């Protein structure tokens, strides 16, 4: 783990006559995520130059003032890579197999019809509160109001450029990178009406991380994602199965609305959640065997990105 702004200051100090390398580094390769994304290609180029210099062309790996700037990953507490002003747009009903399985498992004809309507037509979404995010390694708080907590393994695209009314064919350059996302969800008495967001928003309800993969040649519609509960694989999918692609979602979300650097667009989730794998009983109840319980460890992973891992704890913790 490298302090990239400090590494860039070292690069400037050792390869140029910059009189104030640290001040210049703070402007050109900012240490704050939102500012770094907004700096665009210049910040990425500076970061690459600093990394190359640190690896190949310097006598030591310490900062301008001799400070430590390279740290073992296991010694670092990662924060969720979400900017202060980010909005988290979450695609709803965006994997057909997930929704079909949920429809087949319900005993309520009206609910089944509602699920089918959600799949039909154009994109649909809801918002997660970015202040409710949790990071890789952080404990996730089991909401006191639920007896059926669910997981949803997803890929999220991070917006890198400001834009509005963006055509789908033009959207890919607006994607800065990709990260993992766990859309924790309360499944008790879920309504698809105006209060739907209540089942999606609570403290720690959006795990994001462990980092953002940038400029690694990822194909947006070919990113694998899995979920394991206590080591058992529950979900195994790919963004190739999204009903509405990231580009289609970007076009839809940017209509009359400016997307900003740092905004996240989450893919929706593939089949294998507790709710789409559990048969609703005749009385409307759900066996709880597959739902999350305090003490469970949940991992969302992708071979293209990494792993986010969280232990779920009782709400009084």
SS-based class: alpha+beta
How many structurally independent domains? 2
Which range best describes the helical content: under 10%, 10-25%, 25-40%, 40-55%, 55-70% or over 70%? 10-25%
Please list the strands of the largest sheet in the order they lie side by side. 2-1-12-6-7-9-3
GO molecular function: hydrolase activity
Protein name: Fumarylacetoacetate hydrolase family protein
Family: Belongs to the FAH family.
Pfam families: FAA_hydrolase
Walk me through this protein's architecture.
The structure is a single chain. The protein has 317 residues and is of the alpha+beta class. It has 2 domains: 4-75, no CATH class; 88-313, Fumarylacetoacetase-like, C-terminal domain (Fumarylacetoacetate hydrolase, domain 2, Alpha-Beta Complex), CATH 3.90.850.10. Helices cover 23% and strands 22% of the residues. The chain contains 7 helices and 14 strands. The strands form 3 sheets. It has a 7-stranded mixed beta sheet with strand order 2-1-12-6-7-9-3, covered by helices on one side. A hairpin with a 2-residue loop joins strand 10 (224-229) and strand 11 (232-238). Helix 5 (96-105) runs antiparallel to helix 6 (109-119). The longest helix is centred in the first third of the chain and has 16 residues, at 41-56. It is globular. It starts with a helix and ends with a strand. The mean pLDDT is 93. It holds the Pfam family FAA_hydrolase. One of its GO terms (molecular function) is hydrolase activity. InterPro entries: FAH, Fumarylacetoacetase-like_C, Fumarylacetoacetase_C_sf.
